[in-house]
Amino acid sequence: MSVVAGVDIGSTTAKCVVLGEDSQVLGKSLSVVGVDIVKDAERALEAAIADAHLSRSDVSFITGTGYGRYKIYFGQLVVTEISCHARGASFLFPGTRVVVDIGGQDTKAIRINEKGEVVDFAMNDKCAAGTGRFLDVCANALGYDVGEIGALSLQARRAVKVTSTCTVFAESEVTSYVSRGKDPKDILAGLHASIANRTLSLMQRVGVEPEVTFTGGVSQNEGMVQALRRRLGAPVNVSPLSQYLGALGAALHGRERIVAGGAS
Amino acid sequence: MSEGVASPTVPGGVSPSFLRDARGLQRKLVEDYYRDLGSTEKPRRPVAYMLVGGNLTEIVRSFGYDVVFPEIVALNCAIKHQSLDNILRAESMGYGLDVCGYVKNDLGLQDLGGKTSFGQIPRPDLLVCSFSGCYVYVKWWEALAESYGAPLFMYDVPYMREESPRKEDIDYLVSQLWELVHLLEKRTGRAFDMDALKRVLTESRRAEEGWVEFLRAGRLRPSPIEAYFESIFYMFPINVLRGTPEAADFYGVVNEEIRARVRDGNYPLPEEKVRVLVEGVPPYTNYRTFWDFFRKWGAVSVVATYPKVGGLFDRGFRHDPSRPFESIAEYSLGAYVNQSWPLRRKIIADYVKEYQADAAIIHGIKSCRSFTAGQGDLRDWLIHEQGLPTLYIESDHQDPRYFAAAQIKNRMDAFFESLEQRRAVAAVAEAAAA
């Protein structure tokens, strides 16, 4: 059996996907990234292999991606997460033409062709405005865990308008709304809408066309998915595997490399 | 471990082996220049501060002035990792985060006494604001005039919206040039010497011919030159020493070396995989790192716009000793940053064809809107109207706090990776068709 793995070391989390012969997902893992990226990568791989009930020797090819890709010393190939999210999204949703990836520190809009190849991409600036970190900071300011704010935002009655795109200024704006007695759910809805606006503007730089597939950690936030759908006025593909699409795409790149005979 | 679709071709390094005699001579010219400027011998030649764009070097040089370009001092500080101290000093004086890095480097350096690792920068005896297209620059020169108590000559250059200069613009500039001449006569007590100006212009023209020969070598496949990173080293003589025999002779050495490269097969990279057009000012604070991001992917810049900030000589302009004032006026109008965006686009589109560029990289700088504003639209225009894969990245030319290496590298890796991918797919399709 030709088993391949993709390891995606992002700014916040490490993801790994193990794929079987027919590219079915045999195992996966998700963990928080610490200061030792090399060990984090190894642990992510081991956890996904264990999830697949396999051993390390069963895995014939490993591809690394994400910001920490150069620290994945045990792999045979590195590919940027832009190409990996493109490939992963195209694999799950073959009609995908635009991928929106919102991770811990980056937001990316990637336009792809019918083969899952990158045609154009745009990313947020150096600052973390409109990313997972933005939501983390604002959730903390409101005293919530980031995992619960998406559902809470959907209970809003009248979303407030959050104008700041800077994470630091947005936190101050949240505090200001709290002091004015605004319902935290309305503030959360405003924050999600502000990220959706920013994301749409990034998408417009590469051209918006259906289908749109949402990937990255923030795609697991239902409030964000709804905010993006509302702003786009169109459906957005999301899957329970969306957060793993970088790792999945990396594994698929590895599979292609084996097929092309380029494994080293 | 291999990299994406492509394998890394060149390890990172700080001393590309294809740079030989010319780079050594350029270093010597720079060292000599700053040593002479820092000389404490009396009496010393008077010093004029000037901006690179549209500069009037030939006229002040004909009166025996040394010329200092604070922008070039600033970039030398940045490339030697000395700009941040100066910038922080300027910020402590009250200059905001978003003020041009060149300005803050210069004002901070001045406040710290003008001492750099490459020499003492002398105080100005005259300030010539030769580029009025940037209002920040105008205010910068006013601040210098106030600080040094030196006379300020403000040269008002009309913005270029048409390819050929209008007669009334030339006349307007020539009248200002005569005002400068009269000011210089008064300051030096010397009568204007037209023959001296013509001699300087003759040397300028000789340097311009040599510089253009170098730049046009980028048309060869593979290119024997690095038209962005290498050209930036060689901009120093054409911008700072133009009008001296040393500058003109320098390009003779450069072009001899380029011919030898072609003869010996000594190219910027072992394999030229991607021919790139580069637009924008480089991140001087991380110059080598940025260069390595190209080299790793076999990307060679074959043409670039930034080396033309001191003059669009490769578009045909030459200083002309037979029409001294008119040609200086034409030169000032023709500064790259003095061109409207439609004109800049035309230049870039012509470059893409003439130099057979496969892709473009635009480097925007946060603290300079006069060069950078419009580059986002340029990116869209190149992609959608010209069909040229184009990447826009952003940091700063002076302020290292704006350079996020991992993010820039990530964008460049993804860009070159997707180019490789498209090329591989096209090759398969071609093979199948055959």
Chain-averaged pLDDT of chain A: 89
Total domain units of chain A: 2
Measured between the Cα atoms of the first and last residue of chain A, the distance is: 18 Å
The H-and-E topology of chain A, N to C, reads as EEEHEEHEEEHHHHEHEH
Q: How big a fraction of the residues of chain A is strand?
A: 15-25%
What is the CATH topology classification name of the largest domain in chain A? Nucleotidyltransferase, domain 5
Instruction: Report the total helices of chain A.
Output: 8
The CATH superfamily name of the largest domain in chain A is ATPase, nucleotide binding domain
Query: How would you name the oligomeric state of the polypeptide chains in this document?
Result: heterodimer
Cα shape of chain A: globular
Poorly predicted parts of chain A: none
| Strand element count of chain A | 10
SS-derived structural category of chain B: alpha/beta
- Beta percentage of chain B is 5-15%
